[in-house]
Amino acid sequence: MAHPNAELITRFYQAFQRLDAEAMAECYSPDVHFSDPVFPDLNGEEAADMWRMLASRAQQFSLTFDGVEADDLTGRANWVATYLFSQTGRMVENRIQARFLFADGKIIEHHDSFDLWRWARQALGAKGLLLGWLPAVQNAIRQQAARGLAAYRAGTLRDLS
Predict the structure, then answer these.
(1) How large is the average pLDDT for residues 119-138?
(2) pTM of full prediction above 0.85
(3) Is 131 exposed, middle or buried (0-12, 13-18, 19+ CB in 10 A)?
């Protein structure tokens, strides 16, 4: 029988496979902290809204995951997302290692690690291959992602009023 936190991780990624961002958000504590190479510091609803945005925009998306392990405090998993990067029309296969912290049956910290240069080579083509390793280019990727999330959040909040 799997540890309840391993089941929580599994539930999170099964929801992601279905692009069910609401079910993913239910796995998070309201004050969750999320980080990855593109979104380095998201808290609470920002993290949930990132998944909502990504799920709503996903094209030709598939996800696999394995290596799920967890105990009372920590967990980990490996996952691979394959999708069409709409800004360039290029397919991306992103291989990610995830680490988690838990409290009260929820994820309180979620840290994803992946090679941003590898991602840039796939998503941006020659520009990513030649320049994707540069801190300035990686910062530009982060800034563009942050603007996209802010616009998504502003549109979502506007739609609710």
Answers:
(1) 74
(2) yes
(3) middle
Alpha-carbon distance 60 to 62, whole Å?
Answer: 7
Question: Bigger pLDDT: 95 or 156?
Answer: 95
Strand order in the sheet with 42-43: 42-43, 28-35, 106-113, 90-103, 74-85, 62-70
* Model confidence at 126: pLDDT above 70: no
The structure tokens 């979620």 sit at 110
Is residue 139, in this structure, part of any structural domain at all? no
The pLDDT score that the predictor gives to residue 117 is 85
Amino acid sitting at position 22: E
What's the rounded Cα separation, in Å, for the pair 69 and 160?
38
Residue 158: pLDDT above 50? no
**Domain presence at residue 108:** yes
Whether 80 and 63 have beta carbons less than 8 Å apart is answered as yes
Distance CA 93, CA 85 (A): 10
> Is 57 within the bounds of a domain?
yes
